[in-house]
Amino acid sequence: MDYDIEADWQLLNTCNYRCDYCFFPGEVLGEKTVLYGTPDEWADAFSATGLTWQLHLTGGEPSAYPDFVDLCAALTRRHVISLNSNLTQTSLADFARRIDPARVSVINAGLHPDERARRRGLEVFNRNLALLHDAGFPIFVSVVATPDVLAAADDIARLPSVPGLVPVPKLLRGSYRGQHYPEAYDEAEREAFRVMSRKARSAYGAWRAARSEPPTIDPFADDDFLAGTPPFRGKTCAAGSRFVRIEPQGDVFRCGSDTAQQGNILTGTFAPHARPSPCNSGYCFYFCRKYTGAEYTSRQVATGVLAGPSLVPPHFVKRLGGALQRVLRR
Ligand code: SF4
Ligand code: SF4
Question: In the chain, what are the domain boundaries?
């Protein structure tokens, strides 16, 4: 799938679950969802940037967004989407019917076993998992590796009912029940994590090999980071040019909440950075790892974004066509 720029788009804050490791407190997860644009307004606004986007829809729970399937249908006319979902919503059946799997780069199905048990949610999870898998969507199951999950790894592995879709363990990060993870894992938990990771890599081996690039949120090698994740501050990063974070109202930021705003998608004021620059923030480990990679930092520009200093907006440059772009780049 070819795209110029990727966005971590927090579509909404709302979620029907209350996982105790969630980054959002309960009052945020319980907020009423606000719609800032119609599906066509959003799709037109992304297209007006002149760029092809890979839009990672997250939340909250993205499939709880009221116009979720219409939005996905509008966005995927020109762009590519990916999705983090707890697979609880009835909208996913409509999604499986109407959305072209070729326009979806990946679905990360979060298992969340404690909430699943509290809310009797396993049946609906497995129903949606089977629907999406059978419809041809690229999908894997992940589970946040709490100490309880690691202690019951074999039982957890049996929860998804689609053969081969075993849960991939995700590192627990940050504060959890008074301890700071991943540093707080003890040696038995680390070993249980490694075993789970190895089984997951084996189960998804062919699926991963067939992909043109790994999923951006890629927990398959999280066992490399059991002692802690590497620091990124100061490293050259393409966030701001090849990657941005978008908030529910369309405001765009390089990544962390302390980065400067780069305009708004809906008002047509989005302005990507011209080139990679040193990391000046803190953000999600997976995006940090991807956009400090040589593939993004050595090749300075996305299609349509000038390599050198430029006063020409990138969406205008893209419309100029190949020959004129080459002249401008000299
Ligand atoms: S399903 Fe995801 S967004 Fe919802 S509470 Fe759990 S971790 Fe948070
Ligand atoms: S916080 Fe991560 S995504 Fe943001 S600039 Fe630093 S390395 Fe890049």
Answer: 5-225, 236-329
Report the atom number in ligand 2 closest to the C-alpha of 288: 2
Residue 86 Cβ contacting ligand 1 at under 6 Å: yes
pTM: 0.90
Ligand 2 centre and the CA of 71: distance in Å?
28
Q: Which atom belonging to ligand 2 lies closest to the Cα atom of 291?
A: 8
Amino acid at 74: A
Ligand 2 centre to CA of 12 (Å) is 22
Write out pLDDT tens, residues 59-79: 999 999 999 999 999 999 999
Q: What is the CATH number of domain 5-225?
A: 3.20.20.70
Chain segment 78-107, per-residue pLDDT in tens: 999 999 999 999 999 999 999 999 999 999
**What percent of the chain clears pLDDT 90, i.e. is strictly above it?**
87
3-state secondary structure of 91: helix
